[in-house]
Write a structure and sequence with these properties.
It holds the Pfam family Fer2. This protein is an alpha/beta fold. The protein contains nine helices and 18 strands. The protein is globular and about 65 Å long. Bound molecules: flavin-adenine dinucleotide.
C-alpha cells in the first residue's frame, strides 16, 4: 500500500540531499522529493514543512520548519533548523540528519506569505526567524519588483545565519535590498523603541516579523505605534507541536445530532457533507475520507487554513491567523464550527 496516498493530508517521503552547517548551532537540510511528489511540494515563500523526527521514546515527534529556499529560484527545498537548548527535535536533526536519509513530511503549508511579490516589504527577523523571511526576500528580489528592507537581530556575529548569502544579495541588489543587522553583543537587546527607530521609514509597508515571542511583540508593537495598519503586520510564531499528525488516526464519522451543510472545494473537486454542529471542519473532512491538510490540530500552526466563500463559522481557538487573514475569510479547519446552516469553503 502506498502510504502517500492512504494517509490524510498526503504524507511525503523526502530524501536529505545535503546537510549544510550554517553556524555553530544551525543546519540547513536540502530535501529532495521523489519525482512523482514534485507537485505536492510546491510552496509559496514563507511556508513551512512539518517533519517527522524519530524518537525511541515516543516513536516520533512532529516539528514544523519554514522553508528558507525560494520557490521561484529552481533550487532544492531547504529547511533551516536552529538548536533549541534542551529541545528534542531540533537537536536530533542537527546531530543526526545525514545525506541520503529519508524523512517523512507533510506538504508545505502556512499563510505567512506575501500577496504580491511586487509590493515593497519590511522584514523583521531574529535568530532562526530569518528562515521564512529569507524565502520571502529572495522571492521578491528574483520574481517580483518590490523593495525589501530587512532588520535582522542576532546574539553575535557568529550566530548570524545566512550572513554571506545576505551580503551577496545586498551587493547584487543595492537599489532594492537594505539589510540592517542588530547584534546583541554590540547594541544590547532590541527594544520596542529601538525597533521603532529602525522601522520608521518603512512602517507603511507590508511587514513580516519572525523570531522569539518577546522580539515579535516588540516589533509589532513598534509598527502599530508608528501607525502601521494592523492588517499589514504579519507574524509567524515558532512553537512546537504537542500533537503528532503522523500518528493520529482519522476521526470517526458521526452524523448524529443537529448538522449544518458544508460544500468544500479541495484539489479541484467539490464535495458536500452534513456538518454536525459540535464538530470541527477538519474532523468532518477527514472522517469523510478527504486528504485535507493539517498539522498541529490545536489552532497554532495554520497548516489547515482554508477560506470561507459563503456562510459563517466560528473558531474555538486561533493563535496564528491575524486580522488580515480573518478579513480575507481565512479560517483554521481544525478549529472551525458552523454558525450558519450552510457554509461554502475552498482550499484553493
Ligand atoms: C510554523 C513554524 C515554523 C517554524 N520554523 C522553524 C525554523 O525555520 N527553524 C527553526 O529552528 N525552528 C522553527 N520552528 C520551531 C520548531 O518547530 C521547534 O519548535 C523548535 O525546533 C524546538 O523544538 P525542539 O523539539 O528542539 O524543542 P522542544 O519542543 O522544547 O522539545 C522538548 C520537548 O521534547 C520532548 N522530548 C524530549 N526528549 C524526547 C524524546 N526522546 N522523544 C520524544 N520527545 C522528547 C520533551 O518532553 C519536550 O516536550 C517553527 C515552528 C513553527 C510552528
Amino acid at each position: 500500500m502506498n502510504t502517500t496516498e492512504s494517509r490524510p493530508g498526503g504524507i511525503l517521503t523526502l530524501r536529505v540531499a545535503h546537510v549544510i552547517r550554517e553556524t555553530r548551532d544551525a543546519v540547513s537540510l536540502e530535501l529532495a522529493p521523489a519525482s512523482e511528489q514534485a507537485k505536492a511540494v510546491e510552496y509559496r515563500p514563507g511556508q513551512f514543512l512539518t517533519l517527522r523526527i524519530p524518537s525511541d521514546l515516543t516513536g516520533s515527534v512532529s516539528r514544523c520548519y519554514s522553508l528558507s529556499s525560494a520557490p521561484h529560484e529552481n533550487v532544492p527545498l531547504k529547511v533551516t533548523v536552529k538548536r533549541t537548548p534542551g529541545g528534542y527535535g531540533s537537536n536530533w536533526l542537527c546531530d543526526n540528519a545525514i545525506a541520503g536519509m529519508a524523512i517523512d513530511a507533510l506538504p508545505p503549508a502556512g499563510v505567512f506569505t506575501p500577496a504580491s511579490l511586487d509590493d515593497d516589504v519590511l522584514l523583521v527577523a531574529a535568530g532562526s526567524g530569518i528562515t521564512p523571511v529569507l524565502s520571502i526576500l529572495k522571492s521578491v528580489l528574483s520574481a517580483g519588483s518590490g523593495h525589501c528592507t530587512l532588520i535582522y537581530a542576532n546574539r553575535d556575529e557568529q550566530s548570524v545565519i545566512f550572513a554571506a548569502e545576505l551580503a551577496d544579495l545586498s551587493a547584487r541588489h543595492p537599489d532594492r535590498l537594505l539589510v540592517v543587522h542588530w547584534l546583541e553583543t554590540v547594541q544590547g537587546l532590541p527594544t520596542r523603541a529601538h525597533l521603532a527607530a529602525l522601522a520608521r521609514p518603512w512602517c507603511d509597508r507590508e511587514a513580516f516579523i519572525c523570531g522569539p515571542g518577546p522580539f515579535m511583540d516588540a516589533a509589532s508593537d513598534a509598527l502599530i505605534g508608528l501607525g502601521a495598519d494592523r492588517k499589514r503586520v504579519h507574524v509567524e510564531k515558532f512553537v512546537s507541536l504537542s500533537g503528532n499528525p503522523f500518528e493520529t488516526a482519522a476521526p470517526e464519522r458521526t452524523d448524529s445530532g443537529e448538522s449544518a451543510a458544508v460544500e468544500v472545494e479541495l484539489d479541484g473537486q467539490t464535495y458536500e457533507f452534513p456538518w454536525p454542529r459540535q464538530r470541527v471542519l477538519l474532523d468532518v473532512l477527514l472522517a469523510n475520507g478527504l486528504a485535507a491538510p493539517y498539522s498541529c490540530r490545536e489552532g497554532a500552526c495554520s497548516a489547515c487554513t482554508c477560506r470561507i466563500v459563503s456562510g459563517q463559522v466560528e473558531m474555538r481557538h486561533n493563535e496564528v491567523l491575524d486580522d488580515a487573514d480573518l478579513a480575507e475569510g481565512y479560517v483554521l479547519a481544525c478549529q472551525a464550527v458552523p454558525v450558519t446552516d450552510t457554509v461554502q469553503v475552498t482550499y484553493s
